[in-house]
């Protein structure tokens, strides 16, 4: 489980393999001594397993494998060397739950339609992003509800059919990859866990 609070921004160093399995090397600032082989790390949304870890100056390089389901449902298949990705280590018992409950199981991919600067103050700009959700997922997104986009826990500002907007404050833009995002970019979308189960229960009741 995760919270959607990004704790580091990593960089893809290499992508090996073709077809339904890729091995991806990611450089980050995490202490390698704190990452066990087999640990779960959210990488711009998807929960991926560390299959190799090596220390490097200022942090470590860890490798993850992305299989068919991940490649089909997320943007991982588009990753190439140099891409920056949001990282979060999995929760430990007793950790502060500052975002919302995130599983790292991406539901689909949303597309950024527009983004605009709302304010440009002393601490930097705040920006509003409007995104289009896949039709099958739009019903799970509610105004003032939570959504996880590229591994970042965000509050939904507005909803209109399959379009929804989120507002990012200067701090979030600075410590995540959102400062790089532009119209036309695709981002990994995980809908709120509670909304998903509430809808399933409602369907089961007829």
From TrEMBL:
Can you state which reaction this protein catalyses? 2 6,7-dimethyl-8-(1-D-ribityl)lumazine + H(+) = 5-amino-6-(D-ribitylamino)uracil + riboflavin
What enzyme class is recorded for this protein? Answer: transferase
**Gene Ontology terms, MF aspect:** riboflavin synthase activity
Keyword Transferase in the entry? The reply is yes
Q: Which InterPro entries match?
A: ATP_synth_asu-like_sf (IPR023366), Lumazine-bd (IPR001783), Lumazine-bd_dom (IPR026017), Riboflavin_synthase-like_b-brl (IPR017938)
Q: In which pathway does it act?
A: Cofactor biosynthesis; riboflavin biosynthesis; riboflavin from 2-hydroxy-3-oxobutyl phosphate and 5-amino-6-(D-ribitylamino)uracil: step 2/2
Q: Where is the Lumazine-binding domain?
A: 1-100, 101-202
| UniProt KW Hydrolase keyword | no
Question: In which ranges do the Lumazine-binding repeats occur?
Answer: 1-100, 101-202
Q: Print the keywords alphabetically.
A: Repeat, Riboflavin biosynthesis, Transferase
Functional description taken from the UniProt entry? Catalyzes the dismutation of two molecules of 6,7-dimethyl-8-ribityllumazine, resulting in the formation of riboflavin and 5-amino-6-(D-ribitylamino)uracil.
PANTHER family for this protein: RIBOFLAVIN SYNTHASE (PTHR21098:SF12), RIBOFLAVIN SYNTHASE ALPHA CHAIN (PTHR21098)
- UniProt protein name: Riboflavin synthase
